[in-house]
Amino acid sequence: MTFTDQTGTQRRRTLGLAPTFGEELQIAPDGDAILQSVARVSGGRYDPKPTDVFAADDRVVDRTAPLWSYFVLAALLLFVLDVVLQKIHLVWR
Known about the structure:
Layout: E1 2-4, E2 10-12, H1 32-42, H2 50-53, H3 68-87
Antiparallel strand pairs: 1-2
């Protein structure tokens, strides 16, 4: 905002507003001990190297489940429900 003071001098004033961040965004101590214990209990690894994460191993998926039929059925049911609700005029009181 620009204004002229009593002496005739042009002045500029800036006003800002900054929100405070929630507790989840505040800097907190590292939870390394918790992460290490979770990795130990679950059989995982703590702080692996990126090459180790993407390295091929001998694990395979025993069974796959085709999910497309469930999604098609859900889409058809939602389509029918949409058509029915458009044709019926419900009055909510």
